[in-house]
Design a protein that fits this description.
Two copies of one chain form a homodimer. The first copy, chain A, is mainly alpha-helical. Chain A is built from 22 helices and six strands. Chain A has a three-stranded mixed β-sheet with strand order 1-2-3. Chain A has a three-stranded mixed β-sheet with strand order 4-5-6. In chain A, α19 runs parallel beside α21, α19 crosses α22 and α20 packs antiparallel against α21. The longest helix of chain A is centred in the last third of the chain and has 31 residues. The radius of gyration of chain A is 31 Å and the shape is elongated. The termini of chain A are far apart. Chains A and B meet through α12, β2, α13, α15 and α16 of A and α12, β2, α13, α15 and α16 of B.
């Protein structure tokens, strides 16, 4: 929710051009909080405010503004000032922002940005969205192997402000091949042996990613090894940059949102729900809804083929949605459990049989439970019919729930086995397949139990 | 999948007690990789191997073993050795592991652990699972305000090995109240002014969490501010410990899994899918399945009340599942989109109207799309009936999809408004509600269109 607490004061300061108070406001709080209090301002007002702030504060607060506000500022405000701002932003944030600008703006800004930064933006822009290369920052401390601990400290104390992180120091050879890593902790611990070289100190068991690898892979590796940052290299092991822990948290968040959307049968939005264009949203939902609709037509075809039977035993009709949704719901549960277990690495390739066995056992248990409720239901609901009649719904529930759990668990495993994203087996998709089977099972159970007495 | 590449060699080394080779194996790779290669061994074999390793390697590799393997080792292996291992583990990991041991084992081990560590385990165990206190580590560098940069470095180089992180140094007063923070980067940058005190250097705009706050809140704060670690304080602002970035990544993962399970109508497992007890799993699924089942009974009641109508226009029957699942699917989509938007903070309190408007617009769009397919369908499928007949399914689809999207979006917002977890509005739950409405809409549309010509 937008924090409007200081909004009148901020507007007042702007109106009266009270530079002293504005400066005070920009240094008083953590820059993220400052940015929060500014959310109620228009991007133009926010920029006016920031242009009175000192440059470090301006940069910090700007980096915490919402992405749409940042974009609007870059598009509309004074180009020279924006270019200076961009030149000082962290290189990974900068390139993300940059790629969303209009081509004319990009070109105009690039001309005003110092040549080294310009080259870096262009280099980072090469990597496709979603790869390690597109996420990395090039602001990283590189040291040569022959540097002593004393010299390394000297070097760092000169450059510490420039880097996004100095918690790992990367040791490279003269051709920029990554040779090792020294943590700030190791360096501090080695302070009493100031002549030790980086070569002696460095850890050579390196975990790296290649620039073209998928961001999800990067997040998994960093999370598994509890790293603060992971170096990004090319295929010849040249040091290109690093990806830091905060980017990894963002990736984990994004991937979770993507999975949740996919699970509900929505193509991942890759954008804010409230901002995305309605036509795009319609497309991302419509495509799956249509696929599911055509699946639904099959249930209609199936039901139509049992016309005669439904006419003979009309009391079966009201239970159709109940029976098929019980199968669909238990199938969705199994699918979600297997998909989350796969992402967490809880299930391994040789666990197939174990999963199948567990799902059938659980399916039997749940089916029996629902079956007992179903028995009471048909008994009271259908006005005490014969023994065979009252067994139709309960028996169908047992079979449908077992089939639902089994299929719900196996489909994502199958997808995973063939290298697809198991989350594509969305809940509505599993439910759709189980719906059709549910009708077939229901009608066949009814036929077997009732045809003798029909 | 279990890596069995070195399994024969590892077993060979153990059989021949080849201590030299074992030591070599434990230092050759990153400890996480070493642990991976050991996954095929039994916990007892793994521990035998580790007991030949040097103590630092033993500790590191142990900390990367899977939690069940760690537990089994702690329960079954030599208590004195385990106590020594536990005394050196990071304090947050240790307490997690400790709390899962059998009470007898806990007691026995506590007696063998040095008193300072014992007190800390007992203190951290006080905080309930899921709070900041239960996640924090107490291994944190605390400095006094009057310390100079030079002395701080001296202090750190003596103690660097003891702490989980030295990237933030916390400044406390004589009564352990948290006063400020100095980053390793600031300290390094200040090296050329070695007499500066911590009081001058420290940042006093602190972001903290209280020990009793929820872990999800902690994760949000750390992710929003891109912190490496966040200090944990009590209500009097005493410094208790810190929570580090790697724990935050774990929280984000866990919360995503919980949400995905809730979305599919499963009570969050809080355990591995493959290890959880079948009865527990049955309960966590059964409770929701039963609730949904009783919702399903209402669809049966609704359908039964339209008996006469369904008898008069039998051709309506096969389309029942199609019509209601179209509503349910579009409702699930909306619910998932709104829930993910709420967790990401994309929707704010005053966005209600905007969400309602967008959902109705999208619902109309999608409903019209499906309606057109439905028109073609009934036309061909029902053997070219009259104009009124062929309008029933299409018109129902338009209304049902609009109602589905609207309700799917509004229910999670309503839950959120009243302080409940919006993810409780699971997809099957939304679908269940929309199912009943779908039947009512279908039957009423049919009645209006057909009663004149019936």
């Amino acid at each position: 929710m937008i924090n409007t607490l200081y909004l009148p004061e901020l507007r007042e300061m702007l109106a009266t051009q009270n530079v002293h108070e504005i400066k005070e406001f920009t240094v008083a709080l953590h820059p993220a909080r400052t940015a929060e209090f500014m959310e109620g301002l228009t991007p133009h007002e926010a920029w006016q405010l920031l242009s009175h702030a000192d440059e470090p504060q301006r940069l910090e607060v700007f980096s915490y503004l919402t992405p749409p506000a940042q974009l609007e500022i870059c598009e509309n405000e004074d180009r020279d000032q924006i270019a200076r701002l961009l030149a000082n932003l962290a290189s990974d944030d900068r390139v993300d922002l940059f790629q969303q600008l209009k081509p004319e703006t990009q070109e105009d800004l690039l001309r005003r940005i110092p040549v080294a930064d310009r080259r870096e933006i262009q280099r980072l822009s090469q990597y496709p969205e979603g790869t390690a290369g597109a996420m990395m920052t090039a602001d990283v401390a590189r040291l040569s192997e022959s540097l002593s601990v004393r010299d390394a400290f000297d070097e760092l104390s000169r450059q510490a402000e420039m880097f996004e992180t100095i918690y790992y120091l990367y040791v490279v050879d003269s051709e920029n091949h990554l040779r090792g890593v020294v943590s700030a902790r190791q360096l501090v611990a080695a302070m009493r042996r100031p002549n030790t070289t980086m070569r002696e100190l460095m850890e050579t068991k390196l975990v790296t990613v290649e620039a073209t690898e998928d961001q999800e892979e990067v997040a998994n590796r960093v999370a598994k090894l509890d790293l603060l940052a992971i170096p990004v290299v090319d295929h010849e092991h040249h040091m290109l940059g690093i990806i830091t822990h905060d980017d990894v948290i963002d990736i984990v968040h994004d991937e979770a949102v993507e999975d949740a959307q996919r699970q509900a049968g929505v193509e991942p939005l890759n954008d804010s729900y409230i901002r995305i264009n309605l036509w795009t949203l319609g497309w991302k939902r419509g495509i799956w809804l249509t696929i599911l609709f055509f699946g639904g037509i099959l249930t209609a075809v199936a039901l139509k083929s049992y016309d005669g039977q439904l006419h003979a035993w009309k009391w079966l009709i009201p239970f159709i949605p109940l029976v098929i949704s019980s199968g669909g719901n238990s199938g969705s549960q199994s699918a979600a459990l297997v998909i989350t277990a796969l992402t967490r690495g809880d299930i391994r390739r040789n666990d197939w049989w174990r999963v199948a066995y567990r799902e059938l056992a659980i399916g039997g248990m749940l089916g029996l439970g629902l079956g007992i409720f179903g028995l009471m239901l048909t008994y009271f609901f259908s006005g005490a019919p014969g023994v065979y009649e009252s067994m139709v719904v309960p028996l169908t529930l047992v079979v449908v729930v077992m089939v639902g759990t089994f299929i719900g668990a196996m489909l994502p495993l199958l997808f995973h086995r063939f290298g697809f994203d198991p989350a594509l087996m969305s809940n509505p998709f599993v439910a759709g397949i189980v719906d059709i089977l549910g009708i077939v099972i229901y009608m066949n159970v009814a036929f077997v139990l009732l045809s003798g007495i029909g």
